[in-house]
Every structure is written in structure tokens, then in C-alpha cells.
Amino acid sequence: MADDEDFPSSSDVEEPEDADCYLSDQYDDNAENVLQYLEDGRQEDCNWSVSSVITRESLLAAQKEDLRKIMELLALSEQHARTLLIHYRWDVERIFELLDQKGKDKLFSEAGVTNLENKINHSLSSFNPFTCSICFEDVSCSVITEMECGHCYCNECWTEHFIVKINDGQSRRIRCMAPKCNAICDEAIVRSLVSARDPDIAERFERVLLESYIEDNDKVKWCPSVPHCGNAIRVMGDIYCEVECTCGMQFCFRCLSEAHSPCSCLMWELWVKKCQDESETVNWITVNTKPCPKCHKPVEKNGGCNLVACICGQAFCWLCGGATGRDHTWSTITGHSCGRFKEDRVKRIESARRELDRYMHYHNRYKAHTDSLKQESNLKETILGKIAISENKDSRIKDYSWVMNGLNRLFRSRRVLSYSYPFAFYMFGDELFKDEMTPQETDLKQNLFEDQQQQLESNVEKLSMLLESDFQEFSDEEVMENMKHVINLSSVIDRLCKQMYLCIENELLYPLQRATHNIAPYKSKGPERASEHSSRFTKATNEDIDVQHGSAVNASGSPSPAKRLSQFQPSSSSDGKHGCSSTKRAKNEGSLDTPLFDLNMPAEVVDKSWT
Amino acid sequence: MITLLHDYQASRARLFKEYKEVQREKSADPDIQLVCDDSNIFKWTALIKGPSETPYEGGVFQLAFSIPEQYPLLPPQVRFLTKIFHPNVHFKTGEICLDILKNAWSPAWTLQSVCRAIIALMAHPEPDSPLNCDSGNLLRSGDIRGYYSMARMYTRLAAMPKKG
Ligand SMILES: [Zn+2]
Ligand SMILES: [Zn+2]
Ligand SMILES: [Zn+2]
Ligand SMILES: [Zn+2]
Ligand SMILES: [Zn+2]
Ligand SMILES: [Zn+2]
Ligand SMILES: [Zn+2]
């Protein structure tokens, strides 16, 4: 899809102060809208769920951040913090919540963390000699290990136990061997005992612990690229979003398939299935043709009559396929009484036919836009050529960034348009919402939606035509005219897309009682590009969000980080007022945005103080 | 291969110790009689007495143990050889649904303690995780008498010495 990596200045309509002069007469009444749009575009940035790329190299640093938060707040060692985080799926906010609700002791014991405050200390040498209650051997107290829960067995038995659990895929939660003991074994002990026996297994244990940050974490997912780029993406805030990995892969964070908004994940899943098994086509053939009983060629039925004739001259009954004579009345065929000349059968065929027509209607349009998108991707090369020619022309117009901006707008809106068809197929069909809306409501909503869809469609086609013009051969005046149109159309289209998402959220989905369909919010600039994970070890938490935004902008080469940073108001970044996040979603007002403690200390210092 | 061999030796040693313990404490627990197969230390059987004040009272039930090579790190497989009507025992296979034989297994448990846990299970069925749906349903629906009489009948039929 649109790849503006190479076109730093093409991030969208820019320079608000110049915007007015781009407006042609035809679009004058849109002047305000453009300004509004520019305004919105800026606000939208504040509402983005921040995503970052975690590479194999930065995985360790990424989890250290969460570990450190827990270690500091609860005064825990790293391994206890990890045990707690694995148990609560790396959801730091949830742990803070539960700490309030349950209290420390319950929080710890449910996760299998031994609260060291309650531990009774005694010396191991008091056991000498020690009888291990697993192997029943008497051993010296130098080869036994006591876990924090107080349970003590010989090293030999511990080691065997760890290896069995690691091989069984339970590395993240190896429990103590004592009956009914819920404690999770100290990872340092596991590490040292297992590596003494089998370094390969110890390495596997290490890797699993590391990858737990991705595997057991609802906010981090592996990038679905094939072959895999090795990255994972972390989002902060809403998980119903679309992101772009640094490898270029754009995907729905929720279901990991291609970015599919305004379809919900369920709609998209159903649609893909429907398109894959060509059951509809198979259905069509069985509904619309029957083999001739004489020559076995498929014969299509024309009109309502159930007596059909093959080109070979044979007549046969459409319902049973049996050969017949040629004389018939409305309800019977001469000399033929299969008893299936029945209304309901005809009705069934008709309804199958209607279903198919409906599917074909939406599928054709979906496919038309997807195909156009493919063709327009080729347009990019051509346009770059035209820009190169124009820039070398003797002309006072030197800036052609508007062409690429327009093209990127075309790509994004084309994408929205094509996915709006499967959305409509399910929104107004019987499959998902039949019980939620009366036929009248459905009609009303469908008209509303199709109105917007058609407006968007006609503007997208206009933009497509404008961009195909040979502007390199135009006079300066003509170029200016063309530029005005492109810029205006772009802003109109962006507004229409935004409106369509709002309509889906507020008018279509919001009133539904039972179904929950979360749609990734509309992003004027396409799926959010995840920034390289930036370690925050030297930053204060209340700056984190801004810093990440800064790096995202920086990576794509757009306006300087400093300029962008000044636009962010931390207080307004989580109020969810702007943009069009979707319906019925538990809004997670992040407590993370507010500083919980001073993180100005370097990690190493903090780590050391706990180990 | 070496690890496997080691496990095999370790489990054998442990079972041998359990065997000696059983010999020594033969009279300690009169409700349990554990017997090791003459030729295979990984095959055991046990005779347990039905707990008093339960429909199993007076019955003697035979259990079969099949012990994995990684014992005691992995639990033994145990099933009833004697027919028993109990919500947590599969009526046909004798398979037992008991947490300590699955997730909650601890290597510190012994065959003896497993027998004790099974006797406790006979006295306190858990109708919410049934293997024998019929008896589970009877108990869950509160039909204690129905459950009791069925269990009693099967105890008489299968677990008591035939008189005369
Ligand atoms: Zn323990
Ligand atoms: Zn031991
Ligand atoms: Zn990737
Ligand atoms: Zn999805
Ligand atoms: Zn024919
Ligand atoms: Zn006719
Ligand atoms: Zn017929």
C-alpha cells in the first residue's frame, strides 16, 4: 500500500497559512472545512494509540520497563516482579488496580509470589543430615536447596523437576514440588541448577522467559509478516487499532490480518471465508443449471417455467431432471408427475438466487476498488517521472509535493472504500444483525450509509482522474488550477472518510444492543507507523508518550520532533474526545500517563538495589 | 538418552524405597494394602477398604497403578479394577478424576498417599467434575438417596465377598 517512506514531505496537506490560496472558486465554500480538517488532523495525533516496534534486540529493554515499574512500586526483586507480571499478563495497570482491591498478600499469593515479609528464616545446616522427601535419600545439606516458600529438597530432585517442566512447556510457571504449594520457583535457582545439568535446556528456559513479554501480553503481538521480520509491536492504549511495522506490514492489531477497517474483525473474518470457498459460485451453478438427461450438457433455466429444453432438443423437468414430453400447462407437464412441481421449491431457488445477487453486488464493488488500488500503485512510478520533468521545467512552481500527497490520499480512501463494501454486506444483511434491526430500520440506515459511500466514491474517482492528468505539459496557470483541485478534493475526501466512520460508530453500531463490533478508528494518515522502541531508562514517565511520538515523527522524516512535541498536551491526550474511536469499548484511561514515581534513576542502579 | 536412563534409575530407586516402606508399615494403615508386581516394579495394585458411613462401607476395591518412568516427577496412572458407582470414577474404565493425579500432582506424594487421597475422594465426591455423569447428576440434583442406593448396590455386587 501507500509507502511514503521516500517522500518525507508528503505526509498530507500542509502549511495551514497557505491553505486559503489553494482554494479554487468552485470549492470556496469548503475553505472553512479545509481549515477545520487541518485542525482536526492535528488533534487526531493526540488520540493515536501509541505503538512501538520491539525487535529481538530491544525485547529485553522493553520488558525491563514494566519490570521496573512493578519492582519499584511493590519493592520486589526482578524475578518476583516477572512472576507477578506473567500471571497478570504483563498488565501493569491491572496489577495496580488489583493491589487496591485485593491487597498485597492476596495479589502475591494468587500469582505464586512468596511475600518475603512473612518468611521465617532458619538455617539449612539445622537439617544435617537431610532426608529428601522426593527421592528419600539422605544427603548433605550442601546439596539441598530451599525455595522461598520454605520447601526444601535435594538439588538432584529440583533439577529433574525443572527439566520435566521446561520440556513440558511450563517454563513460565514452574511450581514448587511440595503438595499444595502454589509458589513459583525462583528463576535464579532454576537457571543455575538446570544450566549445570544441561545448558541447552537452560537456554530454552531463558528464551521462554524473555518471550513471555510477547506471548503472555495482550498489548504486544508478533508482526504477522511472512517471512517473519523478527519484530513485535506494542501498543499503549486501545488495542483496536491498525498499525504498520517497520518492515512495512500493515495489520489489524486485534486479529493480525490485513488492516480491514471499517470492517470489524468478525465481519472481515466472515468475508474472507465467504470469498475463499466459492460456495456462492458453486451454488449458482447448481441453482441455475442442470445436466440434460440425454446429452448431459448443463442447461440454464430461462424464465419461470420449469419445463426446460436443451439445445439437443430434449425437454426435461427442471425440478427432478427427468426427461419429459414438450406439452405442459402452468402446473403440470404432460405425462410427467414427479410431484415436485411445488411453490416452495421455486421459492427456495429464488431466495438462493437473491442471496447470490446480493453477494455479487458487494463483492464486485469491493473487488473493483481493490483492483483500482493495485493499478493506482503503478501510477506512483509514472507520477514520479512527471514530477521529475516538472521540477526541471522553467517554471515558477517548484513544489510538487501536493501530487504525492494527493496520491497517498487516493490510496487510503480507496482502501476505506473497498472495505466499506464487505462492511455494508454484513451491516445490512441477515447474517449478523437480523434480530437487532427491523427491516425498516435496516433500510433507513442503509440509505444513510450508501449516501455517504456514494459521495466518497464519486470524489475518489474524481481525484483518481485528476492525478492521471499530464500536468508536466501544463502551463503554470493550469498546474495551479490542478493543484487547487487536488488539494481540495483530498481534504473533502478525508472529511468524508471521517464522516463515514462516525456514521458507522454513532448511527449504525451504537444503537445495537447485543452485538459488539469494534472498528479500528479512522486515521487520516493511514495505519499508525510504529516507532522504533525507545528505551525510557533516562526519561521521566510523564514525557514518555511525547517522546515516542517524537521518535515516530522523526523516523518518517516529517516536521522536526521539537515542533511536533510542542503540539502535545499530555492532559488532553487521554480524554478520548477527538478522533473517532469506536463504540462499546471499555475505555482504558491510562494511569500510566501520570508519573507514579521518579524514573530518573538509571536501570542498572535500580536493578542492583533489588538483587 | 542419558537423562532418560537417569530418570529410569531414579524412579526405580524411589519405588524400591516405597516398597520397603510399605513392607515395614504393613500394619500401620489397615485400610490400604499395596502390592508390587513380582516382575515389574512399575506395576502395582492396591486393595482399599471403602470408608465407613459411605455407601462403599464393607467393600474392598482393587486399584491398578501404572507408573511412568519419570515418576515421581510425573504422577502414576491409577484406575479402579473393581466396579464402582461414584461421580468421579468412569463407570466403564475405572479412570479416576482427581486433581492430585493431574495438575496438582506433587513429587512428594507416594503411592500410599495417593491411596489415601482416593479413599478421601470416595467419602467426599466432587459432583462438579464428574466422570460418571449418571451419579454426578444424581448428586448434583440433590438426589442423595438415589445416589446412595445405586452406589450401595454396586458395592454389594462387585466389592463384597460372595456369601454361600
Ligand atoms: Zn513450596
Ligand atoms: Zn531428592
Ligand atoms: Zn514486521
Ligand atoms: Zn481485525
Ligand atoms: Zn441435451
Ligand atoms: Zn412453459
Ligand atoms: Zn419432475
Can you characterise this structure?
- The complex is a heterodimer of chains A (611) and B (164).
- With 611 residues, chain A is α+β, with helices and mostly antiparallel strands.
- Chain A is built from 18 helices and 16 strands.
- Chain A has a domain at 286-519: Up-down Bundle (Four Helix Bundle (Hemerythrin (Met), subunit A)).
- Chain A has helices spanning 31-47, 59-74, 78-87, 92-102, 104-111, 155-167, 187-197, 199-215, 265-276, 279-288, 343-391, 401-427, 430-433, 439-467, 476-509, 541-555, 561-565, 603-610, and strands spanning 50-54, 130-131, 138-139, 144-146, 152-154, 220-222, 232-236, 242-244, 250-252, 289-291, 298-300, 307-309, 315-317, 323-324, 528-529, 531-532.
- In chain A, the strands form 6 sheets. In chain A, strands 6-7-1-16 form a 4-stranded mixed beta sheet. A 3-stranded mixed beta sheet of chain A has the order 9-8-15, with no helix packed on it.
- Chain B has 164 residues and is an alpha+beta fold.
- Chain B has helices at 2-24, 111-123, 133-140, 144-159; strands spanning 32-36, 43-49, 60-66, 77-80.
- In chain B, helix 3 (133-140) runs antiparallel to helix 4 (144-159).
- The interface between A and B is medium-sized, with 17 and 19 residues.
- The structure holds zinc ion (7 copies).
- One zinc ion (ZN) binds at residues 223, 225, 229, 231, 245, 247, 249 of chain A.
